Amino acid sequence: MIAKVIVDVPAKQTDRPFDYKIPAALESVIKPGMRVVVPFGPRKLQGFVVEVQEKSAFTKLKEIVEPMDLAPVLNQELLSLGDWLTEETLSYKISAFQVMLPAALKAKYEKKIRRIAPLDHLPAKLQPLFQESDTILWNDAAPFFSILQREAANGSIEVIYEVKERVKKKKIKYLLPLLDKVALEQAKASLVVTAEKQRKIIDFFIEKHEPVQLREILSYFNVSTSTVKSLIKKGILQEKEMEVYRDPFEDRVFAKTKPFPLTKEQEKAISPIIATVEEERQQVFLLYGVTGSGKTEIYLQSIQRVLEKGKEAIVLVPEISLTPQMVKRFKGRFGDEVAVLHSGLSSGEKYDEWRRIERKEVKVVVGARSAIFAPFENLGIIIIDEEHETSYKQEDNPRYHARDVAIKRSQYYQCPVILGSATPTLETFARAQKGVYELLTLPNRMNNQSLPSVQIVDMREELRDGNRSMFSRALIEGLKERLEKKEQIVLFLNKRGHSSFVMCRDCGYVANCPNCDISLTYHRFSQQMKCHYCGYEASVPTRCPECNSEHIRYFGTGTQKVEEELGKILPEAKVIRMDVDTTSRKGAHERLLTEFEEGKADILLGTQMIAKGLDFPNITLVGVLSADTMLHLPDFRSSEKTFQLLTQVSGRAGRHELPGEVIIQTYTPEHYSIELAAEQNFDRFFKREMTVRKARQYPPYYYIALITVSHENVAMVASVTDKIAKFVQSKLSNEAHVLGPVVSPISRIKNRYRYQCLIKYKREPQLNNALKTILDHYQQDIASKGLQISIDVNPYIL
Ligand code: ADP
Ligand code: ZN
Ligand code: ZN
Q: With bands split at pLDDT 50, 70 and 90, how would you rate the model's confidence at 322?
């Protein structure tokens, strides 16, 4: 028998299956979807079996060394999903397979040297290395490289590669009865009179008759291991190591919750979903409703119906809103049926959760982006909450979007997909309007809570009135009032990306690219402003071109600075700061939130990570320090992202009895994304933004792709990127708009220079075909010169 294997070498030449002979002893073992160790050149590598067949067109096949799994880790559906991912994202098969599995299943390689000749035949310098063992680590022998080369050539040593598993299974010692209950009684009767403790242990196992942790027995009966050992020796009990799962929620109890009777509006929204579940029909729904409108309850009750049909559910939530509160809602409803996957878990914990899914021990997965690949085989629903979140797009190869994968999987299983959001992406909403997705709307908050009142503060006026601080008078008033009433405040500082922009503090003017409608990025060293789509460049003006003020400069403030300033104005306020610095430790995020919830601080100050999921009753004021930082990101989606973020943040206030207030500080209060976010008016925002996209030829009217080229030699990068830009243009004719090449926003990473160009085109399949030909055309350069070309189809971070 022959196995077709995709080997772990991500490169164009190896992006096809290689044939291997299956050793006779393994014929019944090796199956498609299994990981195997195979020889490849001088190395041994991990590979994925994609097919097993009788014959090969090749002769002299090498043999599979060993299987790495007892059962396939990728089922047929996931194997073909891998093929599809490869095509869609223009990546390699091996990367597509690996991205679907927990990182723990990615093999580690160890390079070693094995002695073949007798020890005393080796050069004297090498002999001490092999004293202890015939194989040594390559690194230990590295200083003798030239000697090693010579010895390898004459065959006295060989270099070997070992494939090692990353994952350590957690094992625990158990005791279990070897005899049935009657035999246990007999064994007990035959014990000597003094063996009182042994008798008690046997009694315990007569009652329980199942494996119990050794540790528990020892402490419960307060006995030493020798007592247990003698029972083992007598053949009454057996000691056994068993694999246990690391449960990240081990010491937590989740109170069981019951489904709410649905409101009329919820009923109306859920019934088409339930219908597709019943009819086993594929359909994508957009569940469009503000925060607090009861979307999650709809998810929960749809899942319940799916479980009743014996099927499974995947729920994706953005990483940052995978808060304990969210987990609690799913575990509370479905208990142990739920597995949770997020980046806070250790790789061992993630592997264990994955195994529970694979073994069908759970029916529901709640997780971040990669949970979309949960190895279920009878999927009944896929839910993507906050579908507009950019974190659903993977930024490295394979650059997939979880939404696309969800739709692909739902077609296979003929099941519904629910995309939920209060601020859907333009792409999604446009599809819902066209009827490609079915639009379900929840127009009101639960219990008709009113939306918080939103006040926009014009920071230009503050400056005019002599207030140079980063806090407006209105915000300071609001803070003081809340502190007196002992209510809580969330202060939100929007900081993202690496770039800063140039703005006039008097009139709010921001320097934009005349060609692309995105703000110019300030470069500190050259004192220049650049457009990173098209390369337009200008020097920083000393006076504002609009109002002639001198207060024009680059803009950006950090959370630490805000905390300092707060301390000066309100020394008595207790502040919890949440940003990348304070939350890098495991569990810090959760701990800080709990402290805030318990009222240990008055103010929660943070970046985007606090924008979502917070649902604390005592928050009555939300302050946005500068709505402009995101608005002026050099990204054609910046208005959309600003609208989404402001809407989200506003949703944090007044979720319960106390009414909420939101204060948004900005230098551009007249901008439609700020005005309409304050009104929470998505419909108008959508119409307005669509006209901008149409005029500027951006998605959803055009498809876009970002090509990034990198190499150590900057001149080569520049010239290759230029050639690629021309090449694509020639393939796509005049209808394509090729912007650039320009230096990437991050111009150098690990000493590799980066250039990029952006392509806009009306038709998706043609664009994809043209992109594929680039990789083929430049194959030679990639292979021989170490050039890297990455292509991001429909990029989210530009
Ligand atoms: P969303 O997901 O849109 O933010 P939720 O589902 O979290 O909305 O609902 C908001 C609040 O209303 C939650 O506290 C939830 O428990 C409650 N809720 C949802 N549906 C109902 C219902 N039918 N009856 C009573 N309370 C409900
Ligand atoms: Zn000005
Ligand atoms: Zn430009």
A: low
Query: 725 CA to middle of ligand 3, Å?
Result: 16
Per-residue CA distances from 112 to 116, 131, 216, 245, 397 (Å): 13, 15, 42, 32, 29
DSSP per position, 630-678: HHTSSSTTHHHHHHHHHHHHHTTS--SSS--EEEEEES-TT-HHHHHHH
Q: What phi and psi, each to the nearest 5 degrees, are found at residue 411?
A: -70, -35
Whether the per-residue pLDDT at 363 is higher than 60: the answer is yes
Q: What is the H or E stretch that residue 742 is in?
A: strand 737-749
The predicted pLDDT at position 498 comes to 43
Residue 378 identity: N
Coil vs helix vs strand at 621: strand
For all residues of the chain together, what is the average pLDDT?
A: 88
**Among 358, 381, 416, 411, CA closest to 310:** 381
Ligand nearest to the CA of 548: 2
Q: What is the pLDDT of residues 729-743, one digit of tens each?
A: 988 878 889 998 998
Q: Is the distance from CB of 691 to CB of 651 less than 8 angstroms?
A: no
Which stretch, 289-298, 369-378, 710-719, 742-751, has highest mean pLDDT? 369-378
Taken in order 255, 260, 265, 266, is the CA torsion positive or negative?
positive
The ligand placed nearest to the CA atom of residue 460 is 2
**Residue 360 dihedral angles phi and psi, to the nearest 5°:** 60, 35
Amino acid 28: pLDDT = 83
Distance CA 334, CA 208 (A): 27
Please tell me whether 757 is known to bind a ligand: no
Q: How many CB atoms lie within 10 A of CB 417?
A: 25
Stretch 782-787: mean pLDDT: 79
What average pLDDT score do residues 437-455 get?
86
- Tell me how far apart the alpha carbons of residues 324 and 249 are, in angstroms, rounded to a whole number: 10
Could you tell me if 319 and 369 are in contact, meaning their C-beta atoms sit under 8 angstroms apart?
yes
pLDDT (tens digit, 9 = 90+) per residue, 96-144?
999 999 988 888 888 788 898 999 999 998 898 898 888 888 888 877 8
Instruction: Provide the residues around ligand 2 (an ion) whose CB is within 5 A.
Output: 504, 506-507, 509, 544, 546-547, 549
> Residue 357: CA atoms inside 13 Å, Cβ hemisphere, count?
31
For helices 324-334 and 295-308, angle between their N-to-C axes, nearest 10 degrees = 30
- Give the pairing of strands 364-367 and 312-316: parallel
How do residues 580-616 score in pLDDT, each as one tens digit? 677 767 778 778 888 998 999 999 998 777 766 566 7
pTM for this prediction: 0.82
Nearest atom (ligand 1) to Cα of 300:
6
Q: How far apart are CA 311 and CA 302, in angstroms?
A: 12
Angle of helix 324-334 versus helix 588-597 axis, rounded to 10: 90
Radius of gyration of the chain (CA): 31
| Residues across the chain | 798
